[in-house]
Design a protein that fits this description.
This protein is α/β, with parallel strands linked by helices. The chain is built from 10 helices and 7 strands. It has a 5-stranded parallel β-sheet, sandwiched between helices. Helix 2 packs parallel to helix 5. The longest helix has 22 residues.
């Protein structure tokens, strides 16, 4: 009796959430992963298709054998027709990821969650202070000045749509120094639209996910070709909220430990699933002990005007790209 041919990575349907950072992609992944027509990767941010030198760690990274991608979906048996889901926001900023997805996943559809770029930058600033990447004494105005100096030193976003593939050579650059230019979304989206076509790309906005999640998911389900009725009685809960930490060094150690534990257990469901359930119980108590009321981030009027001026042309270009008005500022 002939042996049944095993389904390859290329034959599956995929829904890939590819950006941007600090735009509710963790919550979006959780909402989609709950859907019965979705088979999610065992953890949210796989980073599989990023360049090896991209400055984010991962357990698996493409190194010539795309079938290793199967390791991230151990719960999907051969022949399972569900859509595979993964979410790596930095795919938006990595040309190699774009080309690898196009080459290896012909049935993939891509989702990009975008956020008003100034509030996104404020969120990144809070996140970087939360995990100890930025000093607690650095003001937001000081952070913005640092970012503009970085662009003045290394080139503008328009000159260099991806700092990670300048002249085709990946450059390992700290992520927190890229956050200003990464808010110029069309610089990174245009190549995706050219490579995949508009029919395979869905744009949604953080603001809609936060304020009207059911409507946002209904539109996304229509794009993906899955049943939107699942979300009629679904409870939408925010995950991975940026907090103000009492002890950022402790929180950084906690995040590193959690990342390493997840990397080790993700394909061991008998260990991974109980630990994930335990985390959902324990983590709220930890956060209650190690967080303090969020401080209002002070943004001077001069800094705000500077940022609006910097992003305005790109927002207009985004309106033209997606064919509907993007009204982030009056």
């Amino acid at each position: 009796m002939p042996r049944q041919r095993q389904t390859t990575v290329r034959q599956y349907k995929y829904l890939i959430v590819g950006g941007t950072t600090k735009a509710a992609t963790t919550s979006l992944f959780a909402y989609l992963a709950a859907h019965p027509e979705i088979c999610a990767a065992t953890y949210k941010e796989t980073r599989f298709f990023l360049d090896e030198t991209y400055p984010l760690p991962s357990k698996y990274r493409y190194s010539g054998d795309v079938e290793e991608y199967n390791r991230l979906f151990p719960e999907q048996a051969d022949g399972d027709s569900r859509h595979r889901l993964e979410s790596t926001p930095d795919y938006l900023y990595c040309p190699s990821a774009r080309e690898r997805i196009a080459a290896f996943l012909p049935h993939a559809k891509l989702v990009f969650s975008l956020r008003e770029p100034i509030s996104r930058l404020v969120s990144w600033y809070r996140f970087a202070k939360q995990n100890g990447t930025l000093p607690q004494t650095l003001s937001f105005d000081g952070y913005v000045e640092m970012l503009f100096k970085e662009i003045d030193t290394c080139g503008t976003a328009k000159d260099m749509p991806s700092r990670y593939a300048r002249d085709g050579v990946p450059a390992a650059t700290e992520q927190y120094l890229q956050t200003l230019q990464q808010g110029c979304y069309t610089l990174y989206l245009n190549p995706y639209f050219e490579r995949f076509g508009a029919a395979r790309i869905h744009i949604l906005f953080y603001e809609d996910i936060a304020e009207k999640p059911r409507a946002a998911l209904a539109n996304l389900c229509e794009f993906a070709g899955i049943d939107a009725d699942f979300y009629n009685d679904y409870t939408f809960q925010v995950t991975n909220r940026t907090e103000t930490m009492k002890n950022s060094a402790l929180h950084r150690k906690y995040r590193n430990f959690r990342f390493q534990l997840r990397q080790w257990t993700h394909n061991k469901p008998l260990i991974h699933n109980p630990l994930r359930a335990a985390r959902r119980t324990i983590e709220p108590f930890y956060l209650r002990l190690n967080t303090r009321p969020a401080e209002q981030v002070a943004v001077s009027e001069e800094t705000r005007r500077r940022l609006v001026h910097y992003y305005r042309d790109d927002v207009q270009a985004l309106t033209a790209l997606i064919g509907k008005p993007v009204q982030w500022w009056n």
